[in-house]
Amino acid sequence: MIPNFKAHPWHGIPVGDEAPNVVNVFVEIVPSDTIKYEIDKQSGYLKVDRPQQFSNIIPALYGFIPRTYCHDEVLKLALESGAENVSTGDLDPLDICVLSSHNIHSGGMLMEALPIGGFKMIDKGEADDKIVAVMKGDHAFGHFRDITELPQAEVKRLMHYFLTYKNLPDEPAKCTIHEVYGAEHAKKVIQASQKDYANKFGG
Predict the structure, then answer these.
(1) Which run of H or of E encompasses 46?
(2) Does some domain include residue 3?
């Protein structure tokens, strides 16, 4: 009898046959979470990163795209866009937040999403892009194809979270958003992170 093994969410699951137009997403945290979870890179299990501080709760599903990595190719895109004070990718899988009208209660799951844009975030000298996507087939968000089609309030909610989620109230901002970009550039970031993954891990 051959034992069944759980695939590692980062290394054992494909990006998706239709990437970068449709990508697989491993969801780590959901809007109702008061704890920030993240993948344990060694085991592939979710682990507690830290309690969420104050009222800065993620306004969308949040996780990463499997078999991606943010290093030299992602850095190159940041520099080409004019970002300053950045010297490397963040050496993690590519982050993605997924808009959905559905009340999903917990992370640790896979879903398909359509990238519609993103934020070129710089965090302590690291290019830490945040891809914005919509859940495939979602009846309220699934028809959006570019971040410019979203209500500005939705974009600002996401930006505010990423600019403040690491900060205490009396601290200066630790992160900056160099630009908000649309679907075309988001797909370039995904492809760059796939190249970085191949260069780091092969395949």
Answers:
(1) strand 46-51
(2) no
In order of 78, 92, 116, the CA distances from 21 in angstroms are 21, 21, 9
Find out whether 178 and 121 touch, Cβ atoms under 8 Å: yes
Q: State the total domains in the chain.
A: 1
Chain segment 176-199, per-residue pLDDT in tens: 999 999 999 999 999 999 999 999
- Give the gyration radius of the chain's Cα atoms: 16
96-150: pLDDT as tens digits:
999 999 988 889 999 999 999 999 999 999 999 999 999 999 999 999 999 999 9
Secondary element (H or E) of residue 48: strand 46-51
Domain of residue 170, CATH code: 3.90.80.10
Closest CA to 27 of 119, 121, 131, 98: 98
Judged by DSSP in three states, 104 sits in: coil
Q: Is residue 17 one of the residues assigned to a domain? A: no
Q: Report H helices in 68-181.
A: 72-80, 152-164
Contacts of 176 (CB under 8 A, 6+ apart): 121, 122, 163
Specify the DSSP element, H or E, that contains 111: strand 109-123
CA nearest to 141, candidates 174, 100, 170: 100
Residue in the block written with tokens 């559905």: 102
Tokens of 140: 């309220």
